Fold these 4 entries.
Entry 1:
Amino acid sequence: MDIVYGIMLDNGSGYNARCDSSLGLHIGDFCVIRKDFYLDYGQIVKQFDAPPPEATPAAPVEEERESGGTVFSAKKNEIYAILRKATVVDQGKANENKMRAKSALRITGQYVDRLGLPMKLINAHYSYDGKLITVQFSAEGRVDFRELVKLLSQEFNTHIELRQIGVRDETAILGGIANCGRPLCCCQFLKDFASINVKMAKEQDLSLTPSTISGICGRLKCCLKYEHEGYLELEKTMPRRGELCECKDGRGRVVDRNLLTQKVTIQLDDSTHTVVCPASEVSVVYLDKYKLRGAAGQGDSAKQNQNPSGGDAAKPSSEGTAPSQQQKPARQGAPDGQNRPHGQPRKQGERPPRQPGDQRPQNRPQQNPNRPPRPQRQDGGNRDGNRDGGKPHGNQPPRRPPQG
């Protein structure tokens, strides 16, 4: 029966590997792994009860590396094979590779300074058999390191792999102490970095000061993610800031709250004092002026919008009623049976009715009121713009006077 383990290397990277249960491996043991075209050395940090669903069988694919050589690289989420449990000889060789990796990192830094590349070297890792050197670095943007790979391949006479990592991975590898006084979560148990946004900090009632919600890496703290669901559950039974509440000391508004202790701070209306009460002893108050216009106003408006001919609506009374609340008469000029009460929107396509004496054409074009009227000719000019017996306009021949 095959068992899948999580392997961690000395440079902070890791992958999954499988082996038969007859090897008797446990968490914390060191082992030799067959990976691609070389052997690697790592420590078991996790054991899976079942193979991960995203894992695929080992299927190396051929690709071209930056150095120009053709090697076999593994696919993502690939499960490799564990050959054996590390012996004393294997541990001695692994310690020797660590010393060689430090020397390789120092030489790589010299080449980086010579080429003037904007990159920060983190660490270097030698494979168990020395066929591959992996150098991890961080940079603000993309870095063209093709010339660096060629120089390092000639220097060490082996395959070189440069891997760029983010600031969170860099912090997880280097380690440190968080603001809470404990080691960083990414160094202990948090291995997968999820997406974090500022909205999570707002829902946890945290100050949005960058120094408060940012970690050592300069990004938002990872603890904002895995504590977010717990804060959402605590917030369901808590009043929000600014709400009007009643407590045993009187009525006031919520100025502060603590989700963890389930207590709220209320500033009383009749004084400037503030009191701290548990959330269970506070009730939210909604005054009439703060209520939304809902069922209370819908009943009166529905009665006013009913057709007066049906007899359901009550007649307006001038006694004891404000002028703004009286029902306004229908518009004048509309025929009987088409009176539309005031306030009711006009239906789509409905046009105002015409008066009985209005004889305007239906499709009469609209004239510009600012246009001056056309002057009438007083000299008896004809249609062509010429007077009888006058000089013709343009190239037209003159007209003969009538005979007899």
Note: Residues 55-75, 294-304, 306-326, 330-337 have pLDDT under 50 and may be disordered.
Entry 2:
Amino acid sequence: MKKSIAILTGGGPAPGMNTVVGSVAKAFLQNGYRVIGLHGGYSGLFRPDPLTVEIDFVFADRIVNRGGSTVIMSRFKPTDKDFAENFNLKFFTDNNVQLLVTVGGDDTASTANRVAKFLAEKQHPIANIHVPKTIDNDLPLPEETPTFGFQSAQAQGTATGCIFYEDARTSENWFIVSAMGRSAGHLAWGIGSACHYPMIVIPEMFNKTSITIDKICNLLISSVIKRKLAGIDYGCAMVSEGVFHALSESEIKNSGIHFSYDEHGHPELGKISKAAIFSELVDKRLKAANIKVKTRPVEIGYDVRCSAPIAYDLVYCSLLGFGVYRLFDQGATGCMVYVKSNGEVQPLYLKDLQDPVTGKIPPRLVDINSPRVSSIIDNVLSYITTDDYEAAKKYVSDPAEYDFRKILNW
């Protein structure tokens, strides 16, 4: 029977998903393999009738530069019970699957290792190779290599963010913009920097103090006041969604915002607009201070995940896809594919990235002390300093509360 490989995609989409899948397929097809796309992520392996798509050259060639993921994604994570009762071994044996290629985050990668171990125990050993993906750019790849999709998401977000800024200038408004990034502020910082937003707030900025709603709001208001002192009545402020997820539950509950809660009693943060919340909170404080500015909330997130990849990711994701075949041909398994800046392909293992104590992969954070970041803080952001205190008393009684560096304890 002809040897085959199976490809599944897990988690949320990122620009370049189809490029990876199409490139993997092309490499294996020209080397005599059959390529099967498995819809529904891991859920397809734990049902009697998995939904699949036969990926031939024409299919791969058609999708290779498209956004989204033609192989349908899922966040399904199998339990021990699923492995014991629902695993579809027949899919692997009937199709003579030799390799499982997974595209996703670290959960997708670790589950692939479980699948491979389970199959070995069932006397059908396979190789598994993972392609790491996230638009958050928070996976600590060597040499600061970006995660695929980040550059495209940043480019698309910047195009959208510049439109918001033009609207702000045109209508003399303020926009509160929120960008995706649960653990790190790479996307928010990249977009805000590229658009020259006068205020950017990311979790890494709070490296010397705790994150609170008051501090976030005061940073945003600091920029509004600073611009008013310069006779400028418009602006955009970027807030990473990560600062919201870093808030304590007591902070969230005391914010005055009404949330829905999950079965464990935790606020369902994914269902709400972070930009809308901070816009409402800032508006109330501006009104209380009799500062005549209204903000408008906008989100950057779901509109960038399925955007078409830019040239950088088209090439990068192609190299990742071809790299899967290179590693497989070398006998590698249980690893992630990593491509150096010169195109050299290397295996990367989860254990190389995991914390030796917790077993978790620590997120790669924005280096807030780097010259790259400091230059933006010093030359692009607008905020109250000690030199502005006297003039700022026209708007607030205690300008020190809005001093950028005092808020952050820098």
Note: The chain has a mean pLDDT of 92.
Entry 3:
Amino acid sequence: MRTNPHILEINTRAWLRRLENKHGHPFTLENIPEQFLDTVQAMGFDAVWLIGVWKQSPKAGEIARNSQEIQNQVRAIKPDFNPDDIVASPYAVYEYTVDENLGGEKALRVFRERLKARGISLLLDFVGNHMAIDSPVVSDNPDFFVNSGTAEPAHHKDWFFKNPNGIFIAHGRDPYFAPWTDTAQLNYFNPQTREFMLSNLRRVAELCDGVRCDMAMLSLNKVHRDIWWEFIGSTLPKREFWSEALESVRDEYPEFTFIAEVYWGLEWEVQELGFDYTYDKVLYDRLRFSSPQDIKGHLGAEHLYQMRSMRFTSNHDEEESLKAFGRAKSLAASTIIATLPGARLFQFFQLLGRPARMPIQYVQDWFTKDEEVFTYYSKLMSIVSAPAFHGGQWSLRDVNPETDVSSRNVLSWQWKQMNTGKLIVINYSDSPARCNLPLKGISGNTMTEEFSGQKIDLSGDVRVQGLKLELQPYESKIFTFRI
């Protein structure tokens, strides 16, 4: 993948169902239309991340269909939904084999080869923290999981379930939320568990070019101990599981990509374990809730950290960007993340203008494509596929005030490569903004604004006094200039 890659996230089952609705016949990963792959290539994506290719858990499916919370979320958008269109969570993995309903391993390999022919990598999920509640290993090897044996735990009884052999096993859990009742919590203080999960990871690595590791921080030794110490003890293993895992996989696949879903300020620590990219949820929250000054402050972090962060304005866990941000703000936020260093993540349904998020377990996610939104993203992706955004040097820029203080809402940075520069200016507010753009480092008497194609005259007084800009609410401009 290129430096600062573009990654397309796809909910596999919902996507295949959408293709079926459009074309009138079922699809597997083996017969994806050529037009779709051509579009992904034309938009400049470096990788496709498929969610939910692993064998489905029958019990997790039952739990999802009976979940009042999931039903209510679907009903709020589609009152006449069919409960049979709710399936198991992709993150309650039954086993790491490709589901036959998607065409099995053969179909996945065909899809991967078709992507590879277009220079596109395939990413899959690896769920390190837990397995499905009914995974065969839950019965065959209960000691791979946090458990209290045949004695019901004295405390936190709602954290546990009884496996078919009468062993009380913990559900997977984020300590800030209720347990995931469709999952069983792995015990990383057991060396056999580590070897089991490492064998799964090696198997996954045969099938793809990289993995997105779900809730990766939960498997860190200190985090694991702090959540489960009363059941697993407090003696830390000598090494982190992820250090062992990344080293083992890269011995065989040196270019393999590792992306970590991680929160709680542990991003840098996880990056230092060898992950290529970590979630930048802090930037997401600041784009959604904070001021342009707070966003700029976040972008002043150490450059290596920036390069190894994955930016997003939408993913399967967050509310759909159009609803979360509002229409104009969502497109401005996406322009921000598309022009920053680091990996740039876009969700397939986001590009199509999905108005609101459906639960990931609901696969009949039909909505009308928003042509205006899709056209904007197509143009944006075309612009940011230019080499300067992937091989250039990035730096923040300042703008000067004009006639009022509205310039404080303007964000600006640039990329430089060889004799080409890209200058980004965004009014990240719901009011008009005026600013003066210094032209230091810009050669020649013209530069081009990429969204409009407009040629900007930089001769005469403009060269000395700077370029005056008047920006509408959430308006973005990307200029190309000569260095």
Note: The chain has a mean pLDDT of 96.
Entry 4:
Amino acid sequence: MAKTWSIKNLYYYLVCLVTLFMLVGGTISSVNSAMQLILPDKSNIPIFYTYYPEYRTEFEQPVFDPPALEELEKRRGEQEEMEAYYLGYSTRQLFNSLAVIVISAPFYIYHWRRIRPAAEKRGKSDEN
């Protein structure tokens, strides 16, 4: 069975290839973003429990002088802002990835279905 390549067939196959890459990339990115939402990265030092002096035991020798309470509140506020920012960023990334999947899937399906009848027509004409 000899295959005849036309510009139309080449176009269909190229669109299917590109949209397939988009589907795979969107799927990988959406899984990554979902995992970032489920298991977010935590900062190395939990500021609240490390610096507040009332959580120390009585006999423990302080290794450093703790910062002032205002400075601790400022740091905790900054940490909460960063965590909220990264949560929003991961959510946006997840929706962007899902949008790539939702947009590229119909293009792939449509063009792949257009290839199949053309291949079947070629098969029937080769048999005759």
Note: Helices lie at 7-38, 47-51, 69-127.
